[in-house]
Amino acid sequence: MIKVEGLTIVLKSFKFFDLNLEINQGDFHYLLGPTGSGKTLILESIIGLHKPRKGKIWIEGKEIQNLSPEKREISYVPQDLALFPHMKVIENILYGIRARSLPLKDYESYINNLISIMKLEGLLDRYPARLSGGEKKRVALLRGLASKPKLLLLDEPFTGLDPGIKFEIQQLLKAIHDSFRPTILCVTHDFEEAYSLADRITVFIDGKVEQVGTKEEIFLRPKSKKVAQFLGLRNIYRAEFLKRDENLQRHFWSLNGLLLSIPATLYDGGDKEIDLFIRPEEVMILREEKPVKEALKKNILEGEIIDFIDKGGYRLINFQTKEGKVNFEINIPNYAFRNLELWRGKKVKIALRDESFWVLNNLPNN
Fold it and tell me: Can you give the pTM of this predicted structure?
């Protein structure tokens, strides 16, 4: 396990205090945060480029915060890749092994497998100047992995790539991780990338760790309004407690005069206001001619389609309720949009399933 405890770094441009971070052996762990939040500084501090004011770093139970970078057994792929222009691809790949005087024969089979997975067989004698942007990325990733580091640090590794090339390299890296299980810490502000590749995610905002969890926990169950807003989640509302039902199984809340019933298991913190998140992909638009399932009858709302946006594989619909004039964003696949024959101004009914609701922690500044 890699563990960072109470790490404090103060520089002129960036600083963070008491950073705590744990990465399980063999995990692909993502550090997700806004641009300019200091994510690169964290990587540079772990590798040893900045001396901490306080705090400790452990790798496999050994403290390393006082070791020089070359003794930490960590590989780092920066945003600019830092390939050596005077070295051929194969020389770049083997640089870490030779720099540490490791026996090359012990790594030959492993490296050949990496070269094959990364599809670099025909490029080994080229110099970086003769490589495309995607090829350079693959070489830099392979060089970082070649010496079997105890931790591989990746700083925005897919920046600047066309979508098709980006997806291809992500899948190649995922194949390597699935096969060899290197421990990786990657920083990004790209939500889709993190969701696609991460085993676990740490959300880092304003110099603080806000949430740690699986991708499902982060994106479907954000702990605070701050995390939800950073993730670009909408449908976040302030709701006022009204009453409990007779069986204490459900609570009733007012959202700008709109009555909603949510399971008591989602929140039982007392009679006060909450921040309520309604998942846009869990909202159902009902067909007039079809009977409604019992599970959908608890929250049926009338309203109209105000607008919609074509997002490629789905439509993002802006729906406004008749009661309370509350707007919801709804995500539905294109085929469902066509089958429902929706248009701007059409009157429809929607159903909020229990899975639609998530209550955010009611912290003072969330």
Answer: 0.87
